[in-house]
Amino acid sequence: MAHKKGVGSSRNGRDSNPQFLGVKRYGGEQVVAGNIIVRQRGTKFHPGQNVGLGNDHTIFALVDGVVKFEHKDKKRLKVSVYPAAASAS
Questions:
Q1: Residue 4 to residues 7, 8, 67: CA-CA distances in angstroms?
Q2: Looking at residue 40, what is its pLDDT?
Q3: Which of these, 6, 21, 31, 79, could form a disulfide with 61 (CB 3.0-4.6 Å)?
Q4: Three-class SS of residue 77?
């Protein structure tokens, strides 16, 4: 005879943390060097001028300026950062 209540253990009580992917700074926004612009898996967006590509395909700004999303060719998009005009600051 059982001396414990037969309470089954939950077999699927696990959950992974969210990845927080996506566009962090949109076109026309001001960024400073080092700001993350896009967190992505693979190159949905390709790096353009004045941006770097991290090991995990994160696109980040290399200079202070304004974000611009543009076409690289017919199918691919690229992200660039253009320095703000000196007279604007």
A1: 8, 11, 63
A2: 97
A3: 31
A4: strand
* Whole-number pLDDT of residue 87: 46
In percent, the amount of the chain with pLDDT more than 70 equals: 88
CA-CA distances (angstroms) from residue 86 to 31, 35, 82? 15, 20, 12
pLDDT exceeds 70 at position 72: yes
Query: Considering just the CA atoms, what is the radius of gyration of the chain in Å?
Result: 22
Report long-range pairs for 79-83 (Cβ below 8 Å, ≥24 apart).
79/37, 79/38, 79/45, 79/46, 79/47, 79/48, 79/51, 80/48, 80/49, 80/50, 80/51, 81/31, 81/37, 81/48, 81/49, 81/50, 81/51, 82/49, 82/50, 83/50
Count how many residues are written for the chain. Answer: 89
- 46-69: pLDDT as tens digits: 999 999 999 999 999 999 999 999
